[in-house]
Design goal:
- The complex is a heterodimer.
- Chain A is of the alpha/beta class.
- Chain A folds into 2 domains: 3-39 and 163-355, no CATH class; 46-153, abc type-2 transporter like fold (3-Layer(aba) Sandwich).
- Chain A is 65% helix and 6% strand.
- Chain A has a 4-stranded mixed β-sheet with strand order 2-1-3-4, with helices on both faces.
- In chain A, strand 1, helix 3 and strand 2 (72-77) form a beta-alpha-beta unit.
- Chain A is elongated.
- Chain B has helices spanning 47-54, 76-82, 98-106, 115-121, 137-149, 167-182, 194-200, 218-223, 241-245, 268-282, 296-304, and strands at residues 7-18, 21-32, 36-40, 62-67, 70-72, 83-86, 155-159, 186-191, 203-208, 211-216, 229-235, 250-255, 261-265, 286-293.
- In chain B, the strands form 3 sheets. A 6-stranded mixed β-sheet of chain B has the order 6-7-8-3-9-10, sandwiched between helices.
- In chain B, a hairpin with a 2-residue loop joins strand 9 and strand 10 (211-216).
- The longest helix of chain B is centred in the middle third of the chain and has 16 residues, at 167-182.
- The two termini of chain B are 46 Å apart.
- Classes of the chains: A alpha/beta, B alpha/beta.
Chain lengths: 359, 310
Amino acid sequence: MAFPSLFIANLRIIFRNRQAIFWALAFPLLFVVVFGFFIGNGVPTTTIAVVDHAQDQLSQNLMTGLAGVETLELEIRADEAEARQEVTDGDLGFLLILPAGLEERVASDPPAIVTLLFDEGSPTSGLIVGVVRRFLDDANLTLAGAPTLLVLDASGIYSDDVDYFDFLLPGILGMGIMVYSIVGLASSITVFREQRILKRIQATPLRITTFFTAQVLAYLTLALLQAAVILGVGVLAYDANIKGSYLGIGIIVLFGNLVFLSLGFIVGAFSKTAAAASGMGNAVALPMMFLSGAFFPRDGLPTALRVVVDYLPLSPMLDALRGVALDGRALWEFPLELAILSAWIVVASAVAVRIFRFS
Amino acid sequence: MASERDPVIVVEGLIKRFDDLTAIDGVSFNVPRGEVFGILGPNGAGKTTTLECIEGLLNPTQGSIRVLGMDVPRQAREVKERIGIQLQASSYFDYLTLREILQLFQHFYPRHIAVDDLLERMDLTDKAGTTVKKLSGGQKQRFSIAATLLNDPELVFLDEPTTGLDPQARRNLWDLIQEIHSEGRTVVLTTHYMEEAERLCDRVAIMDQGKIVAMDTPQNLVRSLPTPYEIKVVVKGSLSQDGLETLDSVVNVRAGQDGGFAIGSTNAARTLPALLAWAGREGSELEHLEVQPSNLEDVFLSLTGRGLRD
């Protein structure tokens, strides 16, 4: 059978081409790592230094309570003067000073003063001051024996919030598949034609459609591998949240991949060298990468532009990917997106077949 | 039962046009089984286009082609199962080894010969695990011929098989082509080297500007020339050009740069004794005497007024 050997031969050709593998895997992973590094994951923890002059039951309770707040980390300090200097120097973000005799001065007049020093320039200062204030308020109410009148159900604040990295990961996946499918296929087709390999295949009884089908199938396999690696690194190394089904994501990846492979065939039909194919392919892919919202939501685009951009193939692909990955929705909830992708597959592959040249 | 001399290729009135350009302008010929048939001509004469029409790679604009009794291009796929095609300057996949390429190509044919035997025969066994890129020019051509023989074809097409090779590699390839022929395969090759055509081909079609201008065995083509022989002579002292022109069977005399003369003759066997007798009478001592048969280059020159590699 010619088909399995052709499929394996195509996989070999793809995987032995280190430059192509760089663009397929290393390039999108680089985005994952760089964004993961800069953005971090989840809500960052903040360190608060505490100088405890009281050393009594109340100060202990306060500190245990503060340490229980998920985003705070306490650091016990003995030397108040030194800690103050560190805040002044910008080396320490927050310093909480619990005065001596805290417990005895409860309900005395004037009340005990708990001091919180912080660096005004710190981006999270407002948040932390709020957390500490709320904590002291709670303590006041408890100490005063006031009845609990209102309870805030604060669940869902830290739990599984979608952060920027979660939003980016499907964008990077879509970008990686798009760039490699267009540029990789366009350059390989160009090389096959210009080195007269296509003509050599035509000189055998093999149907040329069998040859291209095997090639497309090899690229689809690589796309699924790309998806597995990019999502795998995002989830395992950077704690990205994927809520929907991986099967759904895989199917969207295949739809998008077929569009971009057809575009790759079209680019390959026009270019005479692998370098030209790569340049032309990037000229098609890069504007789409920025416009269709691989890195930023498309909401910011001018309305007139959005009307067009919404129908570029990367847009519905990313919308469906994010819908499944971030919102945990099912694949069938995106009929419009899948319809746009299908229309692209039909039109682009028809154009590709029409304009393709063997020599 | 097909007879030994049945034509394996019958081309009649073949015309191929590309837009405004007429690449082949009414070509007809037959190739009998077992022959080495050469198409000789300068670049752009239409040699490759003719081959590609016969191979079923190009659709002819007009005319009929039968290969192994089948119609081309209608039955091109069946024909391709039984012929071997070596394309001019075609290459193979960059990232596959020689063995992997042949193992891939063998799946394209209903029957094939063993890959390792083929590599062994082409003296490429120790290169089986490397890629085509790492081969020398001669090795590349041998590999390309290996791929051509993979389906054990009855009919082999070689398009300029030795172009760009050094003289040693060219001679090796000639031996290989003769070996392929001796196995009973019919060989059709194109070339613009007259020496190659003379050495390998039973019959030669000379093509120029899309037409066959002459077709015969190399010997007959040369004999059909007005001057199949050229006699070069240098003497001590002087010889008169007019005297030389009166000698038996002499057609023309040209003065050479070395003070000698080149005498065009229809029959060297008659001109030579006459020349010697005449020189004796004149008292001239011959310093150098050389009889050269004309070659296909001269045939092409006399038919078209141009050299093969102009």
